């Protein structure tokens, strides 16, 4: 039965990949609509998220969550491709690090911000449900009735997402005005003389460039997948390992990992002004290798040792994604097409890694650490291969 579940998840990952590819193709063919596309995705995501507590029954909830996942994938892909397009040809290191720091900062503080809305949950068989959302909870937990205010959180998130979208609307309108002006100028020049020439189509990407994009896509697939998987299953590992830690201790370990991860990304914003991406990547790889290799021997020795190794690993992993993109754009033009491939590779890992590793984690908790070490070694090898290709591109 669990293999059927794995198959369904892998099919979902394939659908996610197809959606992201379609987003990338749209943004490649209609670059003047990129900001408006992200605006539409954010508006739709805000509205659908706000409606989640009012689903009423499970089928409606599943439909709403499907659209939430679809829109998140679209906005994630579209936003990353838009950023890469905006910063194309510029030193984007500090900007990319700033964006990814905000992501990790949100991942670290989201549970803290949500906790007040979860604090009034009680166990009883007598109180009536307070709304549609509680009715859905009762279908999963017949003895769990809650006075939680979680129903207020979803509309707040939806409203916040909706408000953020108007910045993209402003720039989308500016893009349309600019395009209209450019087309008018081009038409006038073409009608009066032959001085105006249409922009030449981009030549086919050389084989080495294609190989570099392929290797780095595999690199991002492995790295992002394991980053997400490790952060997700760290609490489970702490609970299922020989240490037999509590869920609270596991949550604290997760906070240590994401806290160190966020702190390193914050430092990377300023380091990008003075240190080359290659040096930052080399430093991060050394820290990751040392941290993961140490965890193989100390992960089940004590809580303190596990916390130390987890912090070191989070510190090393924090800058790899953004720094890798900054390094890559120094050698190739990361246009909408290449950007889409890289972003899609980064989204497939989080879809597949947790499902595949989750099947073995309960019986063999150390598989999380062993896989983490294997992924770090594979990423180092892939990066060395990519680095050798860039030498030939010069």
Strand content: under 5%
Shape, principal axes of CA atoms: globular
Mean pLDDT: 77
What is the topology, as strand order, of the major beta sheet? 1-2
- Assembly state here? single chain
CA-atom Rg in angstroms: 23 Å
Number of strands: 2
Which residues form runs of ≥5 with pLDDT under 50? 1-6, 121-133, 193-204
Order of helices and strands: HHHHEHEHHHHHHHH
Q: From the helix content, strand content and strand pairing, which structural class follows?
A: mainly alpha
What is the count of DSSP helices, taking H or I runs of 4+ residues? 13
What percent of the residues sit in helical stretches (DSSP H or I)? over 70%
Structure, described:
This protein has 394 residues and is an all-alpha fold. The chain is built from 13 helices and two strands. Strands 1-2 form a two-stranded antiparallel ribbon. The longest helix has 43 residues, at 150-192. It starts with a helix and ends with a helix.
Overview features:
13 helices; mainly alpha; 2% strand; disordered N terminus; 2 strands; 394 residues; globular
Short description:
The protein is an all-alpha fold and 394 residues long.
Topology:
Blueprint: H1 2-29, H2 34-51, H3 58-86, H4 93-118, E1 121-123, H5 132-140, E2 144-146, H6 150-192, H7 207-240, H8 247-274, H9 277-298, H10 303-317, H11 320-328, H12 336-361, H13 367-393
Antiparallel strand pairs: 1-2
Helix pairs in contact: 1-3, 1-12, 2-3, 2-6, 3-12, 4-8, 4-11, 7-8, 7-12, 7-13, 8-10, 9-10, 9-11, 9-13
């Amino acid at each position: 039965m669990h293999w059927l579940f794995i198959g369904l998840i892998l099919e979902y990952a394939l659908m996610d990949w197809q959606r992201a590819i379609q987003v990338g193709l749209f943004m490649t063919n209609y670059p003047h609509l990129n900001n408006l596309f992200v605006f539409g995705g954010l508006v739709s995501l805000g509205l659908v998220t706000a409606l989640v507590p009012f689903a009423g029954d499970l089928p409606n909830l599943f439909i709403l969550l499907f659209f939430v996942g679809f829109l998140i994938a679209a906005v994630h892909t579209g936003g990353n491709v838009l950023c890469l397009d905006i910063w194309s040809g510029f030193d984007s290191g500090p900007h990319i690090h700033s964006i990814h720091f905000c992501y990790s900062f949100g991942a670290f503080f989201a549970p803290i911000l949500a906790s007040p809305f979860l604090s009034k949950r009680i166990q009883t068989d007598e109180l009536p449900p307070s709304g549609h959302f509680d009715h859905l909870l009762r279908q999963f937990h017949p003895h769990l009735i809650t006075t939680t205010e979680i129903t207020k959180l979803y509309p707040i998130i939806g409203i916040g997402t909706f408000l953020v979208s108007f910045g993209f609307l402003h720039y989308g309108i500016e893009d349309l005005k600019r395009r209209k002006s450019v087309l008018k100028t081009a038409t006038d020049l073409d009608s009066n003389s032959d001085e105006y020439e249409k922009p030449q189509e981009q030549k086919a990407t050389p084989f080495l460039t294609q190989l570099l994009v392929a290797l780095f896509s595999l690199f991002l697939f492995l790295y992002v997948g394991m980053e997400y998987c490790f952060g997700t299953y760290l609490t489970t590992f702490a609970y299922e390992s020989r240490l037999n830690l509590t869920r609270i201790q596991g949550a604290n370990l997760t906070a240590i990992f994401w806290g160190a991860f966020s702190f390193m990304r914050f430092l990377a914003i300023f380091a990008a002004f003075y240190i080359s991406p290659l040096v930052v990547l080399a430093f991060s790889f050394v820290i990751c290798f040392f941290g993961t290799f140490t965890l193989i021997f100390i992960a089940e020795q004590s809580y303190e040792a596990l916390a130390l190794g987890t912090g070191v690993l989070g510190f090393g992993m924090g800058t790899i994604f953004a720094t890798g993109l900054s390094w890559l754009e120094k050698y190739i033009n990361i246009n909408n097409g290449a950007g889409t491939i890289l972003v899609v590779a980064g989204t497939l890992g989080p879809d597949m890694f947790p499902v595949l590793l989750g099947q073995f984690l309960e019986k063999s908790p150390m598989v999380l650490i062993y896989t983490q070490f294997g992924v770090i070694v594979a990423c180092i090898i892939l990066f060395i291969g990519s680095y050798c290709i860039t030498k030939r591109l010069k």
